[in-house]
UniProtKB/TrEMBL annotation:
Binds 1 zinc ion per subunit. The gene is guaD. Catalyzes the hydrolytic deamination of guanine, producing xanthine and ammonia. GO terms for molecular function: guanine deaminase activity; zinc ion binding. It catalyses: guanine + H2O + H(+) = xanthine + NH4(+). Its cofactor is Zn(2+). Residues 69-442 form the Amidohydrolase-related domain. Pathway: Purine metabolism; guanine degradation; xanthine from guanine: step 1/1. InterPro entries: Amidohydro-rel, Guanine_deaminase, Metal-dep_hydrolase_composite, Metal_Hydrolase, Metallo-dep_hydrolases. Belongs to the metallo-dependent hydrolases superfamily. ATZ/TRZ family. This is Guanine deaminase. GO terms for biological process: guanine catabolic process. It comes from the Bacteria.
Length: 446
């Protein structure tokens, strides 16, 4: 009889595609020494009782309480780590002003390793406590702080993807916060890749460095071209912002005569390892480009309310089979919880569907067929994120990483409640207090 490192006994929900969630009322999630789900055994299988018995004897059985359920850990596809101290600030300002007056001055402080350590340790712990087992982070321009973020991911056992932010365009970046030149930016990016490699030695969840041009306005063509080459040389993921706002789109058209997606593509920055944040203003040509290239979108529904200038058409991109996951976009988004973004994604999509202007007749008011369901949003928070990062996580399934969360319902059920109802309540009501445990690669991080 196989001995597992941990056997979780209880009920679970896992998305199996955009529209379907599998519920199992009585299962054994058997996790091996490497932190992979070796088997998922259901109550009607022959060895179900024997596995429980062996796990009891070896002290590796973790039995869930009746009100608890197992879910896959969430993947946050867009977090600006150095913006964490500003979460909830200045969201009434336009993107350009918010960047200039609030964001760049804060990010510039991450030259200081001590400050970076303080902020990043708290952020990584907070995201884990909220059920986020994988996060794709923008760091800052300075590698001192970026390496502190890598260390925090490693020490708290979060699956981290971290990018050194590149911004070298003197016309769109302040003197105090900019890469000195394209050459310096490229060297620093390469240094970061090597430093992360060193820190990863003997770690069970290595951090992945990410090529990170901030967005078209803050980068010169020279740096974009060099970053495309580095991504190819090291076969690394790429992240940036794309078609987030009218201002950004207008800038691309004015300076390059093209949309930003087309420019990023020309420089080799749209690949099947790219994750582009926001995309509220992507047009059909951009969407086709994303699909053809295998680019993922980080849908950041809370942030988009403030800076997106439109509602991201999540249903449309999902229907076209473009990879889409969810992002908190700290601090364009004010909340570190992917659950909150699941809820906002649903709510925003309903407003897109129905329309918002009561003076327009109901049949013309909205973009019908745009509403997404809780299942669609759960899919984005798990499988959509995993696909965007090409990871075998986000599902409770044999061969997948044991990146999991154990949650309980917030309110009593007052009688019988079916599994579909429980699922919806969990999606709508879970806060950090209802997340009892979080496991990454088989190790409890909460
Ligand atoms: N939301 C958001 N958009 C950006 N575009 C360029 N930088 C940023 C940023 O930090 N946040």
């Amino acid at each position: 009889m196989m001995i597992y490192k941990t056997v979780l006994k209880g009920r679970y929900y896992t998305a199996i595609d955009q529209n379907q969630v599998d519920y199992q009322p009585d299962s054994l999630v058997c996790i091996d020494d490497g932190g992979t789900i070796a088997r998922v055994v259901l109550a009607d299988e022959d060895d179900y009782t024997t596995i429980i018995h062996t796990a009891e004897q070896t002290g590796t059985l973790v039995s869930l309480a009746d009100d608890q359920v197992i879910l896959p850990g969430f993947i946050d596809l867009h977090v600006h780590a150095p913006q964490w101290p500003n979460a909830g600030l200045a969201l009434d300002r336009p993107l350009y002003e918010w960047l200039e007056e609030y964001t760049f001055p804060l990010e510039a402080k991450f030259k200081d390793a001590k400050y970076a350590h303080l902020v990043y340790d708290n952020l990584v712990e907070t995201l884990l406590a909220n059920g986020t087992t994988t996060a794709l982070y923008f760091g800052s321009v300075d590698n001192t702080g970026n390496l502190e973020l890598v260390k925090s991911c490693l020490s708290h056992h979060q699956r981290g993807f971290v990018g050194k932010v590149v911004m070298d365009n003197p016309e769109q970046t302040p003197d105090y916060y900019r890469d000195e030149s394209a050459d310096v930016a490229l060297n620093e990016t390469e240094n970061f890749i090597h430093e992360v490699e060193k820190l990863n030695t003997d770690q069970s969840i290595p951090v992945t460095p990410v090529i990170t041009p901030r967005f078209l306005p803050s980068c010169t063509d020279e740096v974009l071209s060099g970053l495309g080459k580095l991504a190819n040389k090291y076969n690394l993921p790429i992240q940036s912002h794309c078609s987030e706002s009218d201002w950004e789109n207008g800038y691309a058209l004015e300076t390059h005569g093209k949309r930003d997606a087309a420019v990023l593509d020309e420089f080799g920055l749209l690949t099947d390892k790219s994750v582009m944040a926001h995309g509220t203003l992507l047009n059909d040509e951009d969407i086709k480009r994303f699909k053809d290239r295998g680019v993922g979108v980080a849908h950041c529904p809370i942030s988009n309310v403030y800076f997106g200038n439109a509602v991201f058409p999540a249903k449309k991109l999902l229907s076209e089979e473009v990879k889409v996951g969810l992002g908190t976009d700290i601090s364009g988004g004010y909340d570190p919880s992917v659950y909150q973004n699941i809820r906002q994604a649903i709510m925003s999509s309903r407003m897109l569907d129905e329309g918002v202007d009561s003076e327009i007749s109901p049949d013309l008011r909205g973009k019908h067929q745009a509403a997404i369901t809780a299942k669609n949003a759960f899919y984005m928070a798990t499988i959509g994120g995993a696909k965007s990062l090409n990871l075998t996580t986000g599902q409770i399934k044999q061969g997948y990483a044991a990146d999991l969360q154990i949650v309980h319902e917030k309110y009593p059920t007052f009688g019988h409640q079916g599994p579909e109802d429980t699922f919806e309540k969990i999606m709508y009501q879970t806060t950090v207090s209802e997340i009892d445990h979080v496991m990454t690669q088989g190790v409890f991080a909460k």
